[in-house]
Amino acid sequence: xxxxxxxxxxxxxxxxxxxxxxxxxxxxxxxxxxxxxxRVFRDFPYLYEGGLKYERRYLETxxxxxxxxxxxxxxxxxxxxxxxxxxxxxxTPNVIAPFVEQxxxxxxxxxxxxxxxxxxxxxxxLGVRFFEEREAHARGLGGFCWTAFCAVDRPLDxxxxxxxxxxxxHFWEKRGYRREPxxxxxxxxxxxxxDAETAKSMTFWMKRLETPG
Length: 213
Description:
The protein is α/β, with parallel strands linked by helices. Helices cover 28% and strands 28% of the residues. It contains six helices and seven strands, in the order βαααββαβαβαββ. The chain has a seven-stranded mixed beta sheet with strand order 1-2-3-4-5-7-6, with helices on both faces. Strand 4, helix 5 and strand 5 form a beta-alpha-beta unit. It starts with a strand and ends in a 5-residue tail after the last strand.
């Protein structure tokens, strides 16, 4: 069953967290989560022209997985941030394949789907909490040796790259993650202003999951 956490901060966020929910309980948040992903991923580097039909189908992967985690950030009753994760073995074949090709056992990897947070809530430590919550969930499940996620590869001279764009590489490295150039996958989506989907290269980042003691 999927678990969600309401990350509440005194004088900043309303709610009681972290709080757990079942996968069925999560269904009531699907529409809001879909809208949030579409809104955040429109920005560089993803430039994602999303649709609700695809988003609902994508999020159902997490409600179906018995060991997934979905961390939610609320401002009052509104979802302003979300972060997902599930065992790699529960992911789609195109996500699993690069690891198998490089000799990894999917059963030993807990995969992070994404972290999305509205701009006005960034810089408050929530990105760190997203990683901490998902890693704690993976440790609690047991049996995982690695955590991993992927990020899109965009050229430095991409015409839509904002002049002040700051990649998240340093932030991820501080969390203990390392870019693995040999681990790549290809995903397709429609960029803003494009007429059709195009293939994008995605590179995976990994961290050995340490357990207390």
